[in-house]
Amino acid sequence: MTHPEPNQHNLKVSIITVAFNSAATISDTIKSVLAQSYKNIEYLIIDGCSQDNTLDIIREYEPHFQGRLRWISEKDRGIYDAMNKGITMASGDIVGILNSDDFFTTDNVVEQMVKAFDDKDIDATYGDIHFIRDGQPDKCVRYYSSKRFRPGWLRFGFMPAHPSFYARREVFERAGLYKTDYKIGSDYEMMVRLFYKHHIKAVYQPIDMVTMRTGGLSTRGIKSRLQLIKDDVRGCRENGIYTNAAMICVKFLFKIFELK
């Protein structure tokens, strides 16, 4: 007797949120996960011993997930270490990260995203994101589309929008976790490693997946941008791709056209 192949509705999605003193924003993040029309979701919150009432908010929402939410609160070695903890805890077929100051743009993002994995050859998928200023949730100040991304553009600093990136868990098992000795650019190094060293097969979906608040780790002033350029150059070179600071800076020119 043969058994039918599982369809996308059988795929469990592990969504990881890293939090630290996130009381001002994490409610929006949690509510956007809870509201998703796709219900086969495992939600993992990795907290770094918050000193505000982040944990009180998590406990408030926990019963609404009916066992689908798991969380820990312990010291970590930074955001990428916390992401790695989440990936290690994940039991889903598909894994992605939703930061604690971001939220899903619509209630059917996960439902649409999972459809890409109907194709058994697809390792990952990615889409678009947009940015808002805190307190102005309906005003888009920058729209980041991943539509034009090609692996060859990585040497110029371009990558799929990381908050929109979802991959099969086995991809991380094969390629490894985020490097924790990067200050800002470990997500970029991960994209370089996945696309160049492991040649993953990924597909773009024209979905506005995540709403982000401006002022994140990689957008805080000149000092952060200089560190990001340094990390990006290192990420390419460690994976056998030639680039330099001038080439990486090309991406900043294109960001001008993303502004609204």
Would you give an account of this structure?
By secondary structure, the chain is α/β, with parallel strands linked by helices. It has a single domain (10-258), classed as Alpha-Beta Complex (Spore Coat Polysaccharide Biosynthesis Protein SpsA, Chain A), CATH 3.90.550.10. It contains nine helices and nine strands. Strands 1, 2, 3, 4, 5, 6, 7, 8 and 9 form a nine-stranded mixed beta sheet that branches. Helix 2 links the parallel strand 2 and strand 3 (69-73). Helix 1 runs parallel beside helix 2 (54-61) and helix 6 (186-197) packs parallel to helix 7 (221-238). The longest helix is centred in the C-terminal third of the chain and has 18 residues, at 221-238. The chain starts with 12 loop residues before the first strand and ends in a 5-residue tail after the last helix.
Helices and strands in order:
Layout: E1 13-19, H1 26-34, E2 41-47, H2 54-61, E3 69-73, H3 79-89, E4 94-97, E5 102-104, H4 109-114, E6 124-133, E7 136-144, E8 166-168, H5 169-175, H6 186-197, E9 202-213, H7 221-238, H8 245-248, H9 250-255
Parallel strand pairs: 1-2, 1-4, 2-3, 6-9
Antiparallel strand pairs: 4-8, 5-9, 6-7, 6-8
